[in-house]
């Protein structure tokens, strides 16, 4: 994890938030490469849910909602709270479920009795901080889906079964965040809520479990580094009739990156009761009304971001570039899946003090920019630039040299195989498209 954290800061993936003011507890900013990787993960998930699956539509609900939503969902009760203990000696605070012993892990001191601490982040809407204006930053994105169930059902003319997908920010007042971006107070979720007949819930639970595992494998996660664990009844969320955690094998152990839940009719029935709105679905064939059961798939964007980084990170013995002084020196290669790589192509003039080579290199860069996410780099030796590209996961390095000026072709170097070949400039776009390099979303199909 130290190497991953260092790479993220050095190459512009992730920065500590408010760093010039000594940071702000467990909040992070995503730099130029980080925001590209994060967006690519979200694009891949969105495509999977709305294009590759059937009967799933999208939604973008407000972060701020009526406080009544959170009362109905159970978030303002003890059900959405951590049990906290304090050390009587050093006064450090811990989540009880994170402790292995009934002693302070820092100093060995005696701990206080556990007490509940609600994770909701309170805020105020309007000019006066009174009770009437009090609400909360959403702790999960799914509640916005549930309260819009009828709106989506009626406007999109969907029929059961169907799903609603959403990507958005959520906020939890975590007491013991940590492990870099794994557990934060501000994070993003990619959630899909599948509404179905009660008797079909088990079938769809198994279906979505299989689909979600396939998604990770398809984006480069190795089978041995991912697993699905069924959560025992006593450890499940209060709404879950059945729960599976998809876990990734991080350096700090197996940890959840996605949850799949059979939520039954908990959500719609409770919102119907509190809002006094009829949220039942009318089945025309059976001529009956019922509350659909919900199968939820909930992904942490930052957690999957970290898993994909850890999976892609490799340290290889020297020899990939001419800058390596010794074969024992290690070089970093980030072998991200091509759909996730933040930069697809890097354009490199062999030397930067030859005007004709630089001019031609920039022409090639301008040719590719409308089609692919690409970068131009002329700083330092060509070997050092190759190495920088490897560190950030660039798929292909294109070098413009003296031969280019005569033959109108370039050298293309593959990140993974290191194979180099000459390609005519006029054939570049088609060649790269044949390699399935994902281009600009406006132009790629």
Mean pLDDT: 91
- Percent of residues in β-strands: 25-35%
Largest sheet: 7 strands, mixed
Instruction: Quickly name the level 1 CATH class of the largest domain.
Output: Alpha Beta
Helix content: 25-40%
List the topology elements.
Blueprint: H1 2-11, E1 14-16, E2 28-30, H2 32-50, E3 56-58, H3 67-73, E4 81-86, E5 93-95, E6 115-118, E7 121-124, E8 134-137, H4 142-146, H5 149-156, E9 162-171, E10 186-196, H6 201-218, E11 226-230, E12 242-250, E13 253-264, H7 266-275, E14 281-283, E15 288-290, E16 293-300, H8 301-312, E17 313-317, E18 330-334, E19 345-349, H9 355-368, E20 374-376, H10 382-391, E21 396-400, H11 402-407, E22 409-414, E23 420-424, H12 428-434
Polypeptide structure, described:
With 445 residues, the protein is of the alpha+beta class. The chain folds into three domains: 2-66 and 126-309, Bira Bifunctional Protein, Domain 2 (BirA Bifunctional Protein, domain 2, 2-Layer Sandwich), CATH 3.30.930.10; 77-119; 336-434, 3-Layer(aba) Sandwich (Rossmann fold). It is 28% helix and 28% strand. The chain has twelve helices and 23 strands. The protein has helices at residues 2-11, 32-50, 67-73, 142-146, 149-156, 201-218, 266-275, 301-312, 355-368, 382-391, 402-407, 428-434; strands spanning 14-16, 28-30, 56-58, 81-86, 93-95, 115-118, 121-124, 134-137, 162-171, 186-196, 226-230, 242-250, 253-264, 281-283, 288-290, 293-300, 313-317, 330-334, 345-349, 374-376, 396-400, 409-414, 420-424. Strands 3-9-10-16-13-12-11 form a seven-stranded mixed beta sheet. Strand 14 and strand 15 (288-290) form a beta hairpin. Helix 2 crosses helix 8 (301-312) and helix 3 (67-73) packs across helix 7 (266-275). It is globular. The model is unreliable at 440-445 (pLDDT under 50).
